[in-house]
Amino acid sequence: MIFYPLMLFIMRLDKFVCKSTELTKIEAIQHIHLGEVSVNGEMARDEATQVHENNTIMLNGARLKTRDFRYILMHKPAGTICSNIDEAYPSLFNYLVVDKASELHIAGRLDADTTGLVLITDDGRWSFNITSPIRQCRKVYRVELSRVLTIEQAESIATRFKNGVQLQGEEGLTRPAKLEVISSNEVLLTITEGKFHQVKRMFSAVGNRVVLLHREQIGEVRLDVEVGQWRYLTESEALSFSQ
Ligand code: URA
């Protein structure tokens, strides 16, 4: 297990109490309301108080320390699902043998047939930085298309993606996306949001169809392990999503 000693995580007091004890959220809030929790020597009765691990947080006179968060990169195989449990397909977590795997979640799901880079964590604030369109975190997909593209068609699609396309059932256009041509039926697409089936729907909106989809990169983190393998992120990789 990798530790991330320099990362300063700000979180709500009730979350801090949960993360550093066996208490549920409701129990943590009860202890806070009863005045049993102090932050830097002051009683804190508001569960929404923002705290971090450099604060001295006590519960009934005992200092609480948070567990370290985990940040994991995995190469998702085709035919697995981004869920903690097996459903129609086996869960990707079958490949991840770590303690308390049920506490982990996936920061940006992929479809069952999509392969590639998946980031997994137990830090909700960190995954928000990856998945929220507000944060505009880049995701790079390698896409194989059913219909070959001429240079003119590729240029026209690149312009449409740059300007945003209308996906059925969505309010507003997609955010500006970048198309790079690899060959007549293979492209790289960079997007900064993660609508349901977004890449497949974007190509469908321009009259093509995705045959193979593979995520190569999220932010500055590139996929560098074999299919089905995983590793912990380095400290600087994990920190790159916390700024
Ligand atoms: N877009 C899709 O259509 N599918 C994925 O799995 C990821 C992005």
UniProtKB/TrEMBL annotation:
InterPro entries: PsdUridine_s_RsuA/RluB/E/F_cat (IPR042092), PsdUridine_synth_cat_dom_sf (IPR020103), PsdUridine_synth_RsuA/RluA (IPR006145), PsdUridine_synth_RsuA/RluB/E/F (IPR000748), PsdUridine_synth_RsuA/RluB_CS (IPR018496), RsuA_PseudoU_synthase (IPR050343), S4_RNA-bd_sf (IPR036986), TruA/RsuA/RluB/E/F_N (IPR020094)
Catalytic reaction(s) noted: uridine(516) in 16S rRNA = pseudouridine(516) in 16S rRNA
Family matches, as Pfam families: PseudoU_synth_2
Top EC class, one word: isomerase
Pseudouridine synthase RsuA/RluA-like domain sequence ranges: 71-205
Keywords: Isomerase, RNA-binding
Highest taxon in the source lineage: Bacteria
Enzyme Commission number(s) of this protein: 5.4.99.-
Family of the protein in this entry: Belongs to the pseudouridine synthase RsuA family.
Function: Responsible for synthesis of pseudouridine from uracil-516 in 16S ribosomal RNA.
Name of the protein this chain belongs to: Pseudouridine synthase
Organism of this sequence: Marinomonas primoryensis
